[in-house]
Amino acid sequence: MASEAPIALGTPAYRRLTLAMLFAGFSTFSLLYSVQPLLPLFAAQFGLTAEGASLAVSLATGPLAIGILFAGFVSDRVGRRPLMIAAMFAAGALTLAAAVVPGWSGLLVLRFLTGVALAGVPAVAMAYVAEEVDAGSVGAAMGLYIAGSALGGMAGRLVVSIVADLEGWRWALAAVGIAGLAMAEAFRRLAPLSRNFTPSVGRPGALLRSAGSLFVDRAMPLLYLEAFLLMGVFVTIYNYAGFRLMSPPYGLSQAAVGGVFLLYVLGSVSSAKFGTLAGQLGRRKVFWIPVVLLIVGVALTAMTPLVLVIAGIAVVTIGFFGAHSIASAWVGRRAQGSRGQAAAFYLFFYYMGSSVLGSAGGFAWTHAGWPGVTAFCLLLGVAALVIGLVLRGVPPLVVEPPAPQRMPDP
């Protein structure tokens, strides 16, 4: 296919594309994390432990993590836009099916398939925008995708909490699934046809060799480990906060617990502020600050007064998003000629942290209550801080390319 002029800022095509990307981000993260506040309801209805209920999240984020490594490879053959459309429709339909499937095993199978389907969006969204949009306008377009991701993650959790409180968790999942299908159709209608995509047939061997080169740089494995640990803390706190807050002495309603997810707004502010600060003072000098905030927030959640528990969750949110913003941009800086693969590996470890450590935190809750959860998260947080201090000693690259747009928030 012959290349055409890229889509320029201010044109009707650009407005359509940016709105489509907003829907893509919103849909992906609302479908992925909408079950998180429902975990106590799953545990009660199906007679599960907390770690058993957490599989509704982990069995979606785990396949998503693995799928991200391969979705870009598939999109090189079939195209970015068709893959994103198929992924969004499939995920919406699977979530709607999860609302009516009769048993827990069936629900887990559908969540697993939802994770596989959703891998087709975050893995190729940046490539689609970069190919179709004028270079000077890529940042603004990706900004709306990231904004949609943050809003979807927050709104999906809040909506299911409110609907579940009124009509039950099945109606809540049905609402999210229908909304996901509507946004998939909106994306299909709005997203411009690819004009600058050229199919390629790369060889897996070359892909593996290129991926291996990323791990030669001493900093990259450390940054990937940071993604794993930090996301593990964040998801564990949010996974099991509902169990604690709905139990005595708090006894909050499902809708009130869903309101806790409004704290995500603080994360959006934090990521921007810490990203700017890191650009001014240097990542090595700043990265430890949000990690320490994360640790302080975890410690605050161990207190009994409700106001301190909520404050602790707020500080965890601020610290996590700040650290994630710095780490993801740092990966892009160090990657040089392999940014796409570097981002894919970062997201792989990021979502594996959600899957593996998120469920491990449930084991801590079941066997040691909230003190066990805080001890587990403090251990992860301290490990992340130690690695951050080690990163201070890794020499910078002689020439670092311009920083890319940071990766989406959960």
What structural keywords apply?
410 residues, mainly alpha
Describe this structure in words.
The chain has 410 residues and is an all-alpha fold. It is 77% helix and 0% strand. It is built from 17 helices and no strands. It has helices at 12-33, 39-46, 50-53, 55-78, 80-98, 104-118, 125-132, 138-167, 169-190, 204-214, 219-245, 254-259, 264-281, 283-286, 288-301, 306-335, 339-392. The relative contact order is 0.15.
Helix percentage: over 70%
The computed structural class is: mainly alpha
Overall morphology:
globular
The poorly predicted ranges are 399-405
In total, the number of strands is 0
Sheet-strand content, in percent, reads under 5%
The description of the largest β-sheet is: none
- Order of helical and strand elements: HHHHHHHHHHHHHHHHH
Terminal Cα span: 35 Å
- Multimerization status: single chain
CA radius of gyration: 20 Å
Q: What's the tally of helices?
A: 17
Mean pLDDT: 87
